[in-house]
């Protein structure tokens, strides 16, 4: 989904409106009918509605109900993108663990040694 978002076409207003015209009209259709002053007055509402529309379209994609998507190609990682992505994630996780362990060891080495023995003052 990130790749589709970065490419910009799949989740563009026009592409989403084409795939879900009724939903677009229900959420955003009235915005096109209002005059300019009314649109500016309702700016926050229109931003919120656009976010709702985008969220619904993203949910459709993630749930596998979006039309025009070759989910089998994505599941089978036809272009190898997922393997590369996960390889980088695993590598990053390993590096993070290494440095966390190193910091823990350094902190333990720097900590003063405490003895439970009673003090003979």
From TrEMBL:
Residues 101-121 are annotated as: Disordered. Keywords: Transferase. GO terms for molecular function: transferase activity. The keyword Kinase does not apply. The keyword Transmembrane helix does not apply. It holds the Pfam family CCD97-like_C. InterPro entries: CCD97-like_C, Ccdc97-like. Residues 35-101 form the CCD97-like C-terminal domain. Signal peptide: none annotated. This is Glutaminyl-peptide cyclotransferase. It comes from Haematococcus lacustris.
